[in-house]
Write a structure and sequence with these properties.
The structure is a single chain. This protein has helices at 24-29, 50-57, 70-83, 103-111, 127-130, 135-152, 168-173, 185-196, 218-240, and strands spanning 11-17, 38-43, 60-64, 88-91, 117-121, 164-167, 200-204, 267-269. The chain is of the alpha/beta class. The protein has an 8-stranded mixed sheet, with helices on both faces. Helix 6 runs parallel beside helix 9 and helix 8 runs parallel beside helix 9. The longest helix is centred in the last third of the chain and has 23 residues, at 218-240. The chain is globular and about 50 Å long.
């Protein structure tokens, strides 16, 4: 297939995976191979055949020796992508819940120079409920987003999408090792980007909810919601100067610039942890 470069920039897609063997191939098949230069999957100690499927598809795969959590998975994903020379990194969940075909548009928005980060919103265009998002999650999404916009002074349609694109500068500069290893990592990362003054854009994205697609249960959703509230409140208090947080500290640890142990295909590595 003829490669179409986006302004000469290397585009990498990272797939943070956990028990995604049933949906990985469908996700991979719809990635725009003419634009994507590198595909990286980090298997967070899955108990199914995710790594086997990834290997068969020829995806550069790293397997966590133990389950580190969703946030820890992303830390590994981004570190490996940077080490392999990515200029633009697009995170796509391999559960086929989001359309992989939007990678080109999202990478293009980053390449334009107008945005440091781009989020695929399920709320823009009313795609969430049409795609089967549970109503309680939709309502929680809207309430939490309104709360965060108020406290953080932003105007995003949602903070909770798992489909994101970042430029190299933002991934190198944000203190991502200070973020949670759990699901609230996504939210903390946006708060850090807002704190740093990075430009964030959005694009409408259809979404699908079906049995094979990963989704956190009600209990973990509540824990995530509390983490979101904590992140927004922490952001506002730090802006007022009445609190300090490792999330926004200038000396908090950033992603490593090289990850030689994770470079070989099908390597086994420990999840990234705080690098003091």
């Amino acid at each position: 297939m003829r490669r179409v470069m986006i302004d000469g920039l290397k585009v990498a897609v990272v797939l943070p995976a956990y028990n995604a063997s049933e949906t990985l191939e469908r996700t991979y098949a719809e990635l725009p191979k003419d634009v994507v230069d590198d595909v990286i999957l980090v298997d967070d100690a899955s108990t199914d055949a995710t790594a086997i499927v990834a290997d068969r598809l020829g995806i550069h795969t790293v397997i966590h020796a133990r389950n580190g959590g969703y946030g820890a998975n992303q830390k590994s994903c981004y570190s490996i992508a940077l080490a392999r020379g990515a200029d633009i990194v697009v995170m796509v969940h391999p559960d086929y819940q989001y359309s992989p075909r939007l990678v080109t548009a999202m990478a293009g928005m980053i390449a334009s120079g107008h945005y440091d980060a781009v989020f695929a919103s399920r709320i823009l265009g009313n795609g969430a409920l049409a795609g089967g998002m549970p109503k309680y999650k939709y309502v929680a999404n809207r309430l939490l987003t309104a709360f965060q916009n108020l406290l953080m002074g932003a105007k995003l349609s949602e903070y909770h999408t798992g489909y994101r694109a970042w430029n190299r500068k933002s991934l190198q500069q944000l203190p991502l090792l200070a973020c949670s290893d759990d699901f609230v990592f996504d939210n903390e990362m946006i708060a850090q980007a807002k704190w740093a003054g990075f430009q964030m854009g959005e694009i409408s994205c259809p979404t699908k909810y079906f049995p094979e697609a990963s989704s956190i249960n009600f209990r973990r959703s509540c824990i995530y919601g509390l983490g979101v509230v904590k992140t927004a409140v922490t952001y506002r208090l730090c802006k007022w100067g009445v609190l300090s947080s490792k999330l926004f500290a200038s000396d908090s640890p950033r992603l490593p610039r090289s990850v030689p142990a994770m470079m070989p295909r099908m390597a086994v590595a420990e999840p990234l942890s705080w690098a003091a």
